[in-house]
Design brief:
By secondary structure, the chain is mainly alpha-helical. It is built from 15 helices and 7 strands. The model has no long low-confidence stretch (mean pLDDT 96). The protein binds adenosine-5'-diphosphate and tryptophan.
Length: 331
Amino acid sequence: MSTRVLSGVQPSGVKHLGNYFGAIRQHLELQDRFPGECFYFIADYHALTTVQDAEALRESVHELAVTYLALGLDPDKTLLFRQSDVPEVTELAWLLATVTGMGLLERAHSYKDKVGRGLPASVGLFTYPVLMAADILSYDATLVPVGKDQIQHVEMTQDMATHFNQTYGKGNSLLHRPEFRLSDAPYVTGTDGHKMSSSYGNTLPLFESGKKLKKLVGGIVTDSTELGQPLEAERCNVFALLRLFAAADELERIREHYRTGSRDGTAFGYGHAKLLLGAHIERHFEAARGRRDELLAHPERVEEVLRNSAVRARATARATLDRCKHACGLR
Ligand code: ADP
Ligand code: TRP
């Protein structure tokens, strides 16, 4: 079976450098390795388990689509669609729910964590992994790139596929067991040195530039070593972020400035390192920022990509659903 890549992304808030280096960049690299076989969708049904503000949801779905397209998702090679535009998936989720034991879902870390953090324990939140399994299985995905927190959900998907095949397959594989792919993504630190996360208010949002970016980068926490004194690159939050952008030879030179506290005979301090980082971020996302502005001015282009992709995704999901319904005796 050839490789079919699938991943879903939650449309919560403006994406940041952690999301880019941790997830988005891998998704975009895969579209070049597996042209025509990458299915990416915006998990708006899953988002309803946490976001219940219609306008906010619509906006963040649009923002996420714009973000992927601006960063280089090529709609000629890759599908980008809204989860809710493929109703076959929720139908398959019901079929899967009927072969899924309560015990399997009760073991989900993500559910326990979310309820532990105070989210209401809705049925939707509890059955979240069943919908996620339907997402994956509807499109015969073989490879699911995810972050660590989602591995258990893919393993549950494998179990559901196996149960479904055992119950209804009569020796045939109705649903394909997928594998997860953990990206070798770097762990991106936020402005306070902890993991960059939209929940911690320590992010560097993608596409920020000019004064705003300067202010955010200026706010990265450093120690109080005086200008001109040697600095420890390995313990510096600014240097950790510079690693994501600078080439090896430039990084070596910067490391030397840190070690000696000087650059070309003049004092070097955290302020200089922050200027270098700000310039890198500006440059790295410059073309994407331009594309983003263009897309924001033409929301109909974004909508067209989402709709066209959904039509193609639906055809695959329909075939899977028909196969499964027939096997259950529904046709
Ligand atoms: P947030 O913590 O901001 O809510 P999400 O949990 O929605 O981010 O993460 C979306 C994707 O981005 C996941 O695949 C996750 O692994 C990746 N990601 C998020 N933050 C980071 C980070 N600081 N470093 C590396 N990857 C990250
Ligand atoms: N649960 C995933 C997350 O929060 C999003 C998601 C939904 C997903 N369906 C998926 C990821 C299917 C991979 C495959 O990040």
